[in-house]
């Protein structure tokens, strides 16, 4: 069996109408992607922004006429389809799983999805069991990878830890498995809080990790290590809070920062932190610093 797939480029303002036409013609899936390498890093909360030039890819059942789709898009939207081909049916779950292999961080920290064999992993490895889901953070993105490498190299043994913007809870779980005394996982997305709780149970860390929605946190406990893998704008906005809740000589670990934003983060946090260090993977940077006395 195969599926008919079509693809074309539109301007941002044309995307809604094109999508409505595709759905009316029976599309079973519509995917948006960046047409001109114009990445969007910090979209407004609750919005799903599109690029100025967006590529739309739509999938149809084989009985739907590709010619009819092309003709309708041309007449209604004045859109020219520039790519059509047939897609062989596959076991799509298995195809997706190929993008999430087991990954090693530092000498002995591993992140493993449930479908991967653990035979190739050292028996003394510290393993985080993590499947991709609706919340952000599986170790595949550079920002998460940078934080996991920091934890693998700087064990939070016996420390009080906060994972602010916890997503799946992967950093909280890593901290717990590396010996943290207690971990507070905090996020403003209810789905992330749910995912963190479920993943903590799956990894036998629920006695160490407590997950909360940020609206529940009236008072924050002081911590020895605060991790925030979010984005530069909220990192700047949260500087005052973070400075208040990191203990003297405690460590702050910030990620989700682009190269041109590093200096601004340094300037913002330098009043209350010192001993700044940064490292990067491609365009993404991680910054660590110590809380001044």
Query: Beta fraction of the residues?
Result: 25-35%
Helix residue percentage: 25-40%
How many angstroms separate the termini? Answer: 67 Å
Helical/strand content category:
alpha/beta
Please report the total strand number as a whole number.
Answer: 14
Count, helices: 9
The neighbouring-strand order within the major sheet is 10-9-8-11-12-14-13
Find the CATH superfamily of the largest domain. Vaccinia Virus protein VP39
Average of pLDDT: 89
The biggest beta sheet, please?
A: 7 strands, mixed
What is the total number of structural domains? 2
What is the CATH topology of the largest domain? Answer: Rossmann fold
Cα-atom radius of gyration: 22 Å
- In the CATH classification, which architecture of the largest domain applies? 3-Layer(aba) Sandwich
Tell me, briefly, the overall form: elongated
- Taking pLDDT < 50 over at least 5 consecutive residues as the criterion, the unreliable ranges are none
How does this structure look, described?
With 293 residues, the protein is an alpha/beta fold. It has two domains: 2-89, Alpha-Beta Plaits (2-Layer Sandwich), CATH 3.30.70.120; 136-291, Rossmann fold (3-Layer(aba) Sandwich). 28% of the residues lie in helices and 32% in strands. It is built from nine helices and 14 strands. It has helices at residues 15-24, 66-77, 92-97, 142-153, 170-177, 190-202, 232-237, 239-245, 262-269, and strands at 2-11, 29-34, 53-60, 83-88, 103-105, 109-112, 126-129, 160-164, 182-187, 209-213, 223-229, 246-258, 273-281, 284-291. The protein has a seven-stranded mixed β-sheet with strand order 10-9-8-11-12-14-13, with helices on both faces. A four-stranded antiparallel β-sheet has the order 2-3-1-4, with helices on one face. A three-stranded mixed β-sheet has the order 5-6-7. Strand 8 (160-164), helix 5 and strand 9 form a beta-alpha-beta unit. The N and C termini lie far apart (67 Å).
């Amino acid at each position: 069996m195969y599926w008919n797939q079509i693809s074309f480029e539109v301007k941002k303002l044309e995307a809604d109408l094109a999508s409505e036409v595709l759905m009316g013609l029976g599309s079973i899936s519509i995917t948006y992607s960046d047409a001109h390498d114009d990445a969007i890093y910090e979209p407004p909360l609750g919005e799903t922004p599109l690029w100025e030039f967006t590529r739309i890819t739509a999938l149809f059942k084989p009985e739907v006429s590709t010619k009819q789709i092309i003709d309708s898009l041309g007449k209604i939207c004045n859109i020219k389809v520039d790519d059509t081909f047939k897609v062989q049916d596959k076991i799509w779950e298995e195809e997706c799983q190929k993008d999430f292999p087991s990954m090693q961080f530092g000498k002995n920290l591993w992140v493993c999805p449930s479908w991967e064999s653990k035979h190739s992993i050292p028996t003394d490895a510290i393993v985080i069991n993590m499947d991709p889901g609706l919340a952000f953070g599986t170790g595949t993105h550079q920002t998460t990878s940078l934080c996991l490498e920091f934890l693998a190299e700087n064990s939070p043994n016996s420390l009080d830890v906060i994972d602010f913007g916890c997503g799946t809870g992967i950093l909280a779980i890593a901290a717990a498995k590396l010996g943290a005394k207690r971990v507070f996982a905090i996020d403003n997305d209810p789905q992330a809080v749910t995912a963190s709780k479920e993943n903590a149970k799956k990894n036998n860390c629920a006695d160490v990790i407590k997950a909360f929605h940020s609206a529940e946190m009236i008072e924050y406990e002081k911590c020895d290590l605060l991790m925030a893998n979010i984005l530069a704008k909220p990192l700047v906005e949260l500087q005052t809070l973070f400075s208040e809740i990191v203990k003297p000589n405690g460590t702050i670990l910030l990620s989700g920062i682009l190269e041109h934003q590093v200096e601004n983060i340094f300037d913002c946090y330098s009043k209350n932190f010192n001993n700044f260090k940064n490292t990067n993977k491609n365009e993404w940077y991680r910054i660590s610093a110590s809380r001044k006395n």
